[in-house]
């Protein structure tokens, strides 16, 4: 079958070939659509419409004809305003709005404003990079670093703020300190010409949908039939293109140089390519590169990933004691339990019609996966389900049993931009240049893990080649 595919591919006049190893496109964008209309997300569940990267995704959504499918969450929605922390056995609403800045909001021992004002006086750091925890502890104090930032890193990277890089994970804040000596001043005054030039390169004219997101102040959006709709629509659009071929169940097994291009080894057979855009994880790319690219493979292998155990739960009735986006748990409270998303609050349209229900997603593991659960392969679903339902009981007081559940282990699903990630990227880019490899990198391993970042990286990779077509 595959050798037939290789022969078919060789025969085609397609100038663009998309090869996917698994039996579906979309990677971590994965949704279960139950027959009664309920949608459960097993990967990303909300996309931010902010900035050039946010507009770029919405432009694509519009181009794919999905405008009527969009489910926006506006600024004044309770899911935009309320996020919680579970600390010392209690749920605490995270400070938000002006009131939250001026008042002492538990579990913090002083108003956020006090830390922010003090931050302006803190000396500028000199390090080329710093862990997120060290940076925030130095500028804003240990309490915010240990609780708030610890949670933030778990809620975005499923990562450990004591290992993650400030420079690569939160570039606007790192650059603010560099440019103005203070995060606060940098955010208020801007970070100067360098940043402006960067934004110019990123200029994305907004579609009507992107303009609407701005006018209506959306904080995030999803799609009626789940996030998986996006890769499905993209696949349909690509299949209508004359010069594009898309293949699933075709893992790339190896790459060798052939003339000025590549020979791509498939399971059984091979195809030739002038240029490759790699949108696979860095470690997967490292494992297929030829031995001659040893140092490039080495740097790619250094980009670590973490696994997440994800449990979707559905309960009968409205059972939440609070309402909002969800809650995060600092690593000091429970290393294994990263947080719980209250999915039915931002996206009630994904719940089954008729009787009220509550949908939750419990996320576990991340940087603590190995230490708390062992190897991601072959874990007992019942153990993960038990751990998730016990957390829902302890954190939210829900004693009822879920009426539906789904357990999945997402192996190596989030790349970790550890301290010195920027240097690794420089070595990778210079290795590609030095060996004149016809290779462009895209995807979550390099310059941002969000759906927006990944889509923008694909667009930039394609645009960098347009001159060569
Ligand atoms: C649980 C979870 C929640 C998230 N929540 C959000 C969120 O709310 N908002 C947000 O913006 N982002 C979120 N993200 C992040 C975002 O979803 C991911 O970073 C992004 O989807 C990664 O996309 P990617 O295309 O780079 O990689 P992937 O999705 O990993 O895709 C890579 C593809 O390459 C294929 N592949 C691998 N090796 C080969 C090979 N040798 N040959 C051919 N194909 C190969 C794989 O099968 C896969 O389909 C979340 C991620 C996770 C895991
Ligand atoms: C508990 C674990 C996780 C939750 N979401 C993710 C993990 C690992 C993954 C994730 N969440 C977001 C992004 C994209 C970031 C971006 O730049 O757009 C990713 C990869 C969005 C996000 N979620 C939370 C925050 C603070 C952000 C950043 C953007 C924003 O402010 O909206 C918080 C959060 N995530 C989770 C929960 C339960 C939670 C807060 C209550 C789940």
UniProtKB/TrEMBL annotation:
Catalysed reaction, written as an equation: protoporphyrinogen IX + 3 O2 = protoporphyrin IX + 3 H2O2
Upper classification of the organism: Eukaryota, Metazoa, Chordata, Craniata, Vertebrata
Cofactor comment text: Binds 1 FAD per subunit.
Span of domain Amine oxidase: 17-464
Species assigned in the record: Scleropages formosus
Function according to Swiss-Prot or TrEMBL: Catalyzes the 6-electron oxidation of protoporphyrinogen-IX to form protoporphyrin-IX.
Primary site of residence: mitochondrion
Assigned EC number: 1.3.3.4
GO MF annotation: an example: oxygen-dependent protoporphyrinogen oxidase activity
Protein name: Protoporphyrinogen oxidase
Localization terms from the record: Mitochondrion inner membrane
The keyword NAD appears for this protein: no
Encoding gene (name): PPOX
GO CC entries: mitochondrial inner membrane
Gene3D superfamilies recorded: FAD/NAD(P)-binding domain
